[in-house]
Amino acid sequence: MPMPPYQVYCYTKGCKHPALYKIAAKWSDGVVSELKTYGLCCEECLPKWFLRGREQRKGCRLIPNETLEVPGIYVLKHGQRDQTLVRRVDLEERIGTTMDTEASA
Ligand SMILES: [Zn+2]
What we know:
alpha+beta; 4-stranded antiparallel β-sheet; globular; binds zinc ion
């Protein structure tokens, strides 16, 4: 699904920032594959949505032949198809590291 041409806003309730990132995971049932979207968010809300996506992924049960990758951070671009979105692994690692530090503190 191509992105709608209008401005997309952060999914956080009360947040008025435009969405810059998409939290999504590659899903496949062995025949078709697509990006399963967990949320769209701004820079500020990114850690919250990213961690929420990872939490939801943990509780997700898969049927045989079904695969679902761990949710990642994708840069949202207007008019770009899911398959061409750029993944920001560096941001994922930074947020993941922050999370570990907080957990052990
Ligand atoms: Zn936000």
